[in-house]
Amino acid sequence: MATPTTPAPHLTPEIMMQNNREWAAEISAAKPGFFEKLAQRQVPEVLWIGCADSRVPANELLKLGPGEVFVHRNIANIVQHADLNCLSVLQYAVDVLKVRHIIVCGHYGCGGVAAALQNQQFGIVDNWIRTVKELYSFHAPTLKHLTESEKCDRMVEINCSRSAHAIAYTSIVQNAWKRGQKLTIYGWCYRLNDGILQDIGVRIEGIDEVDGVHRVV
Questions:
Q1: Is the dihedral of CA 114, 116, 119, 121 positive or negative?
Q2: Whole domain around residue 143: which residue ranges?
Q3: Is 28 in the same domain as 110?
Q4: Of the residues 21, 87, 149, 155, which has the maximum number of CB atoms within 10 A of its CB?
Q5: CA 197 → CA 61, 108, 129, 186, distances in Å?
Q6: Widest pairwise Cα distance in the chain
Q7: Residue 163 maps to which CATH number?
Q8: Using one digit for the tens of pLDDT, what is the confidence trace for 44-83?
Q9: What does DSSP say about strands 184-190 and 46-51: parallel, antiparallel, or unpaired?
């Protein structure tokens, strides 16, 4: 007869606070003076724009610590030209922190992208993921031969690429390039089932790679 197991306790504020104290103590023991130094200044080289999904933690999957990644996250890692929250993060990262790398990271199995491919209402998020719906409408003829799962994963890549290019189209980034600032934009996608990042072939390194009316410098 199997021995009954005690269910894992649900998270409580007390457990989370205790976890924090243990984490801080472990960091301090391994790296004396770490928090004192961190409090003085943040000097990240990376801006991460990713999905809000709790399974895609930027620092951990890059094997980087506190202070090394400036992070902005939202449903389905969408960059919209009218999103002042995202643009404010972008401007601070580029103009003040002088990051050298901007990573837009989607992830396969993204619930936001999957929702955009359905004929259902999910709430206020429907307005947010409309960008993905419009992308899908444009690319639908080339995706019709795929299974639903393959279609969703391909749209994850397409959406990631679009967001990366949307960053390159901003005056924030183009002005930085004009100043001679070294800045590269990448499009990557994360696989939940093995923890590996996939390079989807998006890498934008300068104003010469921005064409047409999107070039505003």
A1: positive
A2: 42-206
A3: no
A4: 155
A5: 8, 10, 23, 12
A6: 73
A7: 3.40.1050.10
A8: 999 999 999 999 999 999 999 999 999 999 999 999 999 9
A9: unpaired
